Amino acid sequence: MEAFINGLIALAMDVGAKLLASILVFIIGRIIIKAVVKKLRNGKKAEKMDPTVSHFLFNLINVALNIILVVTIIAIMGVPMASVVAAIASAGVAIGLALQGSLSNLAGGIMILIFHPFRVGDYIEAADYSGTVIDLDIFYTFLNTSDNKRVTIPNGSVMGSAIINYSKNAQRRVDLTFNVAYGTDIERVKSILTEEADKHELVLKDPAIFCRLTKQNESSLDFTLRVWVEKDNYWQVNFDLLEAINNRFVQEGIEVPFNQIDVHVKEK
Questions:
Q1: Cis status of the peptide bond prior to 207, with omega within 30 of 0
Q2: H-only helix segments in 142-213
Q3: How does pLDDT run across 174-227, given as a tens digit for each residue?
Q4: DSSP letter, residue 235
Q5: How far is the C-alpha of 35 from the C-alpha of 27, rounded, in Å?
Q6: CATH number at 171-252
Q7: Sheet holding 150-154, edge to edge
C-alpha cells in the first residue's frame, strides 16, 4: 500500500512538474511570439514591403509560431511525437473534409498574394460587396464600405468571383446620360454639356470630352457625356456635373421629359 501511495505521489509530482513547465512555456512563448511579430511589423524591411504582402506574411508567421509552440508543449507533456504524427495522419481525411472551406480560403489568400488583383488601400468590388481593403490575412479579406461598415469576406469567395479594382488605374471615366424632349436642338444640347464639362477644373483635357446623341428613347432623346478624371476625383466630378448641367438646362429652358403615353381616340 505504501509503495502504491509513493508511486502515486511520484506520478502526481511528475505530471504537475510537466504541467507547470507547459504553462510557463505557453506564457513565455506567447509573449515571445507577440514580440517577434510586432518587431517584424515595425521593422525597416516591413516598411519597404507591399502592405498586402506584409499583412499576409505576418499573419502566416504568427500562425506558424503558434503551431510550433503547441507542438513544443505536447512534447513537454511527454506525449510521444510518433503517436501525435500517427493520430494526425489517421485524422487527416476527416480534418480535410471538415476544413474544406478554410482550405479554400487559405488557397484564395495565397492566390491574392501571388497575383495581386488588389492591395491594401484599394477600393474594390468583389463577392457582391464593395469597399476599401483595410486588411488581408490568410483566410479573410477585410473591407470598409463607403458608409463605414466593416465587411469580412472569405478569401475563397473573393477569388471565386469577379474582382473590380477601382484604384488600379490612375484615371477613371465618368459616364453620364441626360434626357431631353423631342424637338430640342441637338447641337445646342451638345454645346451645353460640353461647355459645363470643359469648365470644370478637375476634368482632364486628354483624353478629350465625348458628347453625342446616343439613343432615341420612347419619350426622350438621350445624350451621353463622357469625361476623364483622376481616380480620386471621380465622385466629386460626377455630382458636380449632374448639378451644374441640371441648373444650366433650367436656365436655358431645356425640357427634361417625363415618361408619357400618347393615346389617340378614333371616332366611328
A1: yes
A2: 155-159, 186-198
A3: 999 999 999 999 999 999 999 999 999 999 999 999 999 999 988 899 999 999
A4: H
A5: 12
A6: 3.30.70.100
A7: 150-154, 140-144, 129-136, 123-126, 164-165
pLDDT, greater one: 227 or 24:
227
DSSP string for 32-97: HHHHHHHHHHHSHHHHHS-HHHHHHHHHHHHHHHHHHHHHHHHHHTT--HHHHHHHHHHTHHHHHH
Helices and strands in the chain, H and E counts: 9, 8
For the chain, the structural domain boundaries read 2-90, 103-165, 171-252
CATH number of 103-165: 2.30.30.60
Q: Of 174, 187, 178, which is closest to residue 245 (Cα–Cα)?
A: 178
Residue 25 has pLDDT above 60, yes or no: yes
Q: How many Å from the N-terminal Cα to the C-terminal Cα in the chain?
A: 122
Residue 267 reports pLDDT greater than 90 = no
